[in-house]
Amino acid sequence: MFKFLRSQAKLFYWVIAASFILFLILGGLTGRGCQAPGTGSFEPGVIGEVNGVKVSAQFYDDMVRQQIAFMRQQAGNRELNANQYALARQRAWDTVVQSVLVDQAIEDRKIKITDDEVLDAFQNNPPQALLENYRREDGQIDMDRYFADLQNPDNDWSGVEQYVRTLLKRQKLNDQITAGVSVSEQDVREEYIRQTGRGVAEFMGVTFVDLALDYSPSDAEIQEYYASHQDEFLSDEKARCQFVKFAKEASEADYEEIRTLILDIKHEIETGKRNFEQAAMEYSEDGSASTGGDLGTFNRERMVAPFTEAAFSLPVGVISEPVRTQFGYHLIEVLEQINDAETGELAQVHARHILLKVTPSPATLDLISEAAGDFRSRVDGNSFIMTAEAEGLEVVTPVPFAAGQDIPGLPLSLEASNWVFASKAGAVSPVLENDSFFFVVRADGKVPGGPTPLENVRGAISGKLIQQRKVELAREKLNPAVGEVQLGTSLAEAASKFGLKHAVTDTFTMNSNIPDVGYGSSFNKEVIYGTVDSLLPEIETNRGLFAAVPLWIKPVDEADFQSRRAGIMGFLLDQAKNQALEEWLNEQTAAAKITDLRYQARPSV
Fold first, then answer.
1. Cys-Cys crosslink for 82: which of 57, 92, 412, 517, Cβ 3.0 to 4.6 Å?
2. Is 348 in the same domain as 480?
3. What long-range pairs does 332-336 form, CB within 8 A, spacing at least 24?
4. Are 349 and 311 in contact (CB under 8 A)?
């Protein structure tokens, strides 16, 4: 068993490296986690530096593999797409950076772990990663076997001891950072009500969709709003680039190979080896395969032209020759022809088909990749555009884009986007790829962050001003009715008098949809936290402006609250600690001197 543990020492080390921030990674809370990539020289085997600590390529690569394995597991072992691989690499880098910062904090704070603390952990709180090695077939942990191994003097626990010691140091740091975090009794009670609260309310109000608003913001109003709300329109730094792409398209040889295959299928049907329905269910790569290829009845407008031409020229019961369309090759059999009742001309057919899709073969993809590689080998930043144009390749210049986004016009290009942000103007990328293309990118510098030009946000400002005017108009309509209710008039009477919507809700929760009001809006919260028969004079939601009177609010079940109190307290405390840890990590990262040489050192990573 300890041979196994020693063989897993590297795995345990990575668990250590990630344990402090694992909850952040699993919850998707870690951001990019590093400053702008540095420039400068690098040495072999080193892909970065954090506060003077060199980051080895092997350390980073192992973290990447761990992240990829985790993401594949989360995706049901499905293959990841290009952006998911890029995300795995970024998460790995964030984890490496944060691990170094955590280790430095432990050293700076002189956090130590005694032998007694390690022994106590082994005996009373062994790490789950260690106990997993003692899980039985029935899913339970065999603690007897664990303690027997623990007490066996022939077993070497030195590697595991170091793992536990490091884990405990990180836990002490965790405890120090979150020492001031607390949750009040009121917080716990409010969370209980949020989870269990129910209410019924009577309301009246104005829905924005029903407002007849004859208003268009003037240019002066838009400029005034823009000038007084500059903080709303600040944009981050953006990057510019050009790219040339090489489409992953099937070759004529690929089409001919599929045509040969579909002719073989036709031969099987015609010789009686299997009927059309059976062949469709076995071979067709179309959604209709499960129904034997049945497409139902269709007219001349529904299908693409080559398919329509073949289907409407076939006699009933005759199998077509292979029909090539943008989807691949088809075999078609017409089951019924339907003539127009007035003209007598063929108007519809009932048909079924077998589709074999045509995709680029590995050999074709190799040729396309080689063409992209050949182009890349012959260009630099100065000759990129000239060479591409001379060879008839389209040079695409997308609009500037922000960090963490695909390059516009290149889906699943996050890795390329990261490369552009890490590169100087004029740098040329290695050959990159997504599902549809191989491509080469030329970095073209950055657009500094700052206020977005007015013309780019004019429409958004106009929408905000129109919404403000709608709220003002809704308030003008609602306030007189609220005044009457405050003087003793019922909501129903006031709503009728002033032409407002009026209704009594069904029982709702914090997240329920209330017709005309909205889904999980502030209306739900204010009513459930409100007081029965006490008027709530104004509640704004995305759909309108309302006044409401809670008719029934589920009373707090004190016995149930007490039974759930500890669990809710723990949940809220974990949330608060997670937030404190995330803020601490962000502060440490912002203050750190971080050099990211992944793309300069190994541009294809």
1. 412
2. no
3. 332/307, 333/276, 333/293, 336/297
4. yes
Domain assignment of residue 485, yes or no: yes
Per-residue pLDDT for 334 more than 80? yes
Specify the CATH number for the domain of residue 349: 3.10.50.40
Least confident of 4-8, 280-284, 486-490, 586-590: 4-8
- 283, 320: one domain: yes
Question: CB under 8 Å to 532, separation ≥6 — which residues?
Answer: 550, 551, 552, 553
Same domain, 461 and 418: no
Instruction: Give the whole-angstrom CA distance, residue 389 versus residue 394.
Output: 7
Q: Where are the alpha helices (DSSP H) in 347-436?
A: 362-377, 384-390, 414-422
Which residues does 72 contact at the CB level (< 8 Å), separation at least 6? 78, 79, 80
- Residue 192 inside a domain? The answer is no
d(CA 240, CA 474): 45
Are 212 and 83 part of one and the same domain?
Answer: no
pLDDT for position 77: 85
Residue after which a domain boundary falls, among 356, 389, 411 = 356
596 touches 422 (CB < 8 A): yes
The reported pLDDT for the residue numbered 600 is 72
Which of residues 430, 448, 466 is at a domain's end? 448
Same domain, 416 and 513: no
Among 146-150, 460-464, 480-484, the minimum mean pLDDT is found in: 146-150
Tokens representing residue 267 in the block: 């031969």
Q: Are strands 238-247 and 437-447 parallel, antiparallel or unpaired?
A: antiparallel
Count CA atoms within 13 Å of residue 223 on its CB side. 3
Q: Are 244 and 256 in the same domain?
A: no
Q: Closest by alpha carbon to 243, among 447, 449, 413, 448?
A: 413
239-269 pLDDT, tens digit per residue, is 999 999 999 999 999 999 999 999 999 999 9
- pLDDT tens column, 357-379: 999 999 999 999 999 999 999 99
Distance CA 530, CA 538 (A): 13
User: Which range marks the domain in which residue 309 is found?
Assistant: 252-356
Cβ neighbours of residue 228 under 8 Å, at least 6 residues apart?
none
Residue 508 CA to residue 524 CA, distance in Å, equals 7
